[in-house]
Design goal:
alpha+beta; 3-stranded mixed sheet; about 30% helix; globular
Length: about 110
């Protein structure tokens, strides 16, 4: 497995938080949220997109990605950059329909507290 394959696999092992909340956990790569990466010596820079510019979950998945990639022996530094100007479109390769109520977990949490 190449280093790029390992990076892609690690990023796809992290699920988009909104897909998890809707009951359809989908990796960052499969969601089309990874725009690319560049390696320079022992530094890796990863560029991410969000499904909409006001996404409040981006810091959570970008930090999870940064930590996962820092575990690679090849990198001493990992920077994550968020491109909010990128207009996200559901990737054709995404086989599931992203349907459901946004933040449905809030209702489940309220019900379970009763």
């Amino acid at each position: 497995m190449t280093l790029d394959d390992r990076i892609s696999h690690a990023l796809n092992a992290i699920h988009d938080p909104c897909s998890v909340a809707s009951g359809r956990p989908t990796g960052l790569v499969d969601m089309g949220l990874v725009l690319g990466w560049e390696k320079s010596g022992r530094t890796l820079s990863v560029r991410f997109a969000v499904t909409f510019a006001g996404c409040t979950m981006a810091p959570h998945f970008t930090e999870a990605a940064r930590r996962a990639l820092l575990a690679f022996d090849e990198f001493d530094h990992v920077s994550v950059n968020l491109d909010t100007s990128h207009v996200w479109k559901r990737p054709a390769s995404l086989k599931i329909a992203m349907q459901g109520e946004p933040q449905a977990w809030r209702k489940r949490e309220t019900v379970s507290q009763r």
